[in-house]
User: Fold Type III pantothenate kinase from Limimaricola hongkongensis DSM 17492.
Amino acid sequence: MLLAIDCGNTNTVFSIWDGECFVATWRTSTEWQRTADQYYVWLSTLMKMQGIEARIDAMIVSSTVPRVVFNLRVLADRYFNCRPLVVGKPDCRLPVAPRVDAGTQVGPDRLVNTVGAWDRHGGDLVVVDFGTATTFDVVGHDGAYVGGVISPGVNLSLEALHQAAAALPHVDVSKPEKVIGTNTVACMQSGIFWGYVGLVRGICDRIRTERDRPMRIIGTGGLAPLFAQGDMLFDDIEEDLTMHGLTVIHRYNKETA
Ligand SMILES: Nc1ncnc2c1ncn2[C@@H]1O[C@H](COP(=O)(O)OP(=O)(O)OP(=O)(O)O)[C@@H](O)[C@H]1O
Ligand SMILES: CC(C)(CO)[C@@H](O)C(=O)NCCC(=O)O
Ligand SMILES: [K+]
Assistant:
């Protein structure tokens, strides 16, 4: 079975793929210091607890944090006796090459989102991913990543507000009842929630205008369902899009090996 790993700047998600579906998904914080042995103890404990007897013999990794890749390679080698595919490395091929400026290192999570979304929907898409950053990945008619937009993440913006202003507390993002807040927390929640609804709507409209064609908007990431409550932002929400993209890239590399 395949172990697919998506390391973001905040969280790392592990999923086990049996060729047809994900049999399990677990999440941990991203820490580059974590060793292969630590990953394995954590993973094997969760597998045991859930009675999962998967024999992992392949691994694929997307990491926005280059330093974590070393220990994940050791994990693959020491415990699963395989060489991992690492998205963005020359030996990991993508179905369609990105069309970006020479020398640009596109975030592997964005490339993987592009592949996953194209596999499900075909071309002319925008993937909006609410992670550490809020990213917009534009997929051309042929499935290529053709560029996008990087905005500060929702939780990052809330944290920056709290850090920079002595009287502003830490708050969690949620949909406020009204736009006009009558207390500090409600004012901050409104600014973030309706601010991001406007940001997503505005950027997607401008992308459509710039591309001059209809485009489907796919939302992903933990906060996509929450923001979908604010406006008709997305044609679809797919929380497993990055993981799906990883399985597609793995299959593509196996078939074209
Ligand atoms: N209402 C909410 N308020 C705050 N956080 C939420 C809420 N709903 C979901 N989340 C968070 O969203 C996160 C999942 O998002 P996702 O995996 O897309 O990005 P991330 O892990 O924050 O970022 P990255 O992938 O860049 O590491 C989880 O940490 C989850 O706690
Ligand atoms: C933008 C993030 C942080 C989103 O996870 C990641 O994709 C990244 O580090 N990207 C590198 C730069 C780029 O994508 O163009
Ligand atoms: K992510």
